[in-house]
Amino acid sequence: MRRGRVLAAGVAVLAVAAGSVALTQLGGSDRADARQNTGLPPDTAAVERGDLRDSAQADGKLGYDKQRKVNAGAAGTMTWTPPTGSTVERDKRLYEIDGLAVRLMYGSGPMYRTVKPGDRGRDVEQLERNLAVLGYTGFTPDDEYTDLTAAAVKRWQKAHDREQTGTLGPRDVVFAPGEVRIKSIGTPVGDLAQPGAPVLTTTGSERVVTFALDVAESALAKAGTKVTVDLPDGSSAPGTVSSVGRTAKPGDDPQDSEPKVTLTVSFDKPDKVGGFDQSPVTVNLTGETRKNVLSVPVNALLALPGGGFGLQVVEKGTARDVKVELGMFAEGRVEVSGGGLREGMKVGVPSL
Fold it and tell me: Considering the entire predicted model, what is its pTM?
């Protein structure tokens, strides 16, 4: 994860402390001479009022949602597979075994048996709803396979030059939640397919991005968090964190052993997103926002001798140190309060 100009509070405070000691205790530098000779800092910056946003960036990969494996429903020789990258819709060929097409139907449950009159179940209801959408009606779509269902199945079989048995099973149809994209072929044409063995890997047709965050930083991107994604063609697209993994796993980087959580981004307009599968992208996250606060550049902070942090306020040609309380670090600035600070005041900063 990359924060760019955003600084984690602990690291920033240590850096400020080290820099302040060097500025105030090491003699011989131009900055130290300027301060000793005039009492004024080399440069100043204004105290600003506005919103601070804790933003960050993460490397991600452009892909497709809902990856799953399709297993063969019958034994035989694979005689046709769709092209990799193609999309298969309802009632279209998904693959062929021994010259017989296995077609796609929509449904969340599997087609795990050959259904016939008298059977009941979710697979029956899914099949009936698909038949009705395709125009093979004459029954009430429910979870009961009746003679009227069998009659509709025969009409479907006739339309596809199949034997009109009035029954359907895994050698005839495969259920998926919606249209699918062919990611890879598990059993090439000419190879033997075995029942239950993977023949295809499919995904949904909608573009998504996956990325990983350290567990400690996962609060920056909860489900529902708005993000923007920098795409391979140089454009950006808005999206939302749609899911957050429940299990933390080690990352791919051997130099980074921190456990990570995988997150998925869904685009607001997925049809407008292009790019090759698995292309690298950058996810821009916006975490907490502090509204209407006073802030100064991080390098304006001074480590005070008695502890804590302060600022050198410059007014009417004189400088004075004031103690302040620190809030959010973001965008190269830090939220400050106390010390009589007001918007527009000038505070000392190192020479640019």
Answer: 0.63
